[in-house]
Design a protein that fits this description.
230 residues, mainly alpha, 12 helices, globular
């Protein structure tokens, strides 16, 4: 059984937490997962894995044009007025920087209820900035999730329709409840063991190709689930 609900954390039904963990384990244990990941992170292919992870320069204190370019590789469109707001509006840049630097310096699995408050403060300030009623290619919550994951891949899951649909999260309609589910999955010992073993399996599946393995377990989980579910 689960350890939730925890006072201060968003409440998520135990059955949903356990089922999501089971489904994540199915994806991680699939025999084709190492091969899928080796291709996703192979810089010689047209897959975006390495670009999203490593595109430089990286600035931990602010959102930059490089962050927008990297995130756009994940089928995210940033309209012109959004780009101007994020990159040229001094007040917006300063507020984003303050909230970004206030985020907890620990991975999602170790977060506290107070950490969730700081995560919400950053996410909820950013999301309205990405809203665009004329865009037909991306939802604000998906764009926000992917941009926050670019900035803090150890803390924010990528969260899109495919992953959230597969894990049964779409009915929750709540970013912090989704984070709670990912937190629960990342605290599972079997999940941790599989994620620890995956780098070796990915290297083996690469068969000599120059695959650069992601260093963030949360992002590896997210990509593994996404590639399995789609």
């Amino acid at each position: 059984m689960t350890e939730y609900p925890v006072p201060g954390f968003p409440e998520v039904p135990d059955a949903l937490l356990d089922r999501a963990t089971e489904l994540a384990l199915v994806a991680l244990q699939d025999s084709k997962t190492p091969q899928r990941l080796s291709e996703f992170y192979d810089p010689s292919t047209n897959q975006v894995g390495r670009t999203f992870v490593d595109l430089e320069p990286r600035d931990p204190a602010r959102i930059t044009a490089t962050d927008l370019l990297a995130t756009s590789m994940l089928d995210i469109t940033f309209p012109a007025h959004v780009v101007r707001k994020l990159l040229s509006d001094t007040g917006t840049q300063q507020e984003l920087s303050v909230r970004l630097q206030a985020l907890p310096q620990r991975p999602l699995a170790s977060t506290t209820a107070e950490d969730f408050q700081k995560m919400r403060a950053f996410y909820d300030f950013l999301k309205p900035l990405l809203s665009d009623s004329s865009s037909e290619t991306s939802d604000p919550w998906v764009a926000t999730s992917k941009l926050t994951a670019r900035k803090r891949p150890d803390l924010f899951p990528l969260r899109d329709h495919v992953v959230c649909g597969y894990l049964g999260l779409l009915p929750l309609r709540d970013r912090s409840k989704d984070w709670m589910v990912f937190r629960h999955i990342m605290r599972n010992e079997e999940v941790q063991a599989l994620l620890s073993a995956l780098p070796t399996e990915i290297t083996r599946a690469s068969a000599g190709r120059r695959t650069i393995i992601d260093s963030e377990p949360l992002r590896i989980l997210d990509v593994a689930v996404w590639m399995y579910a789609r």
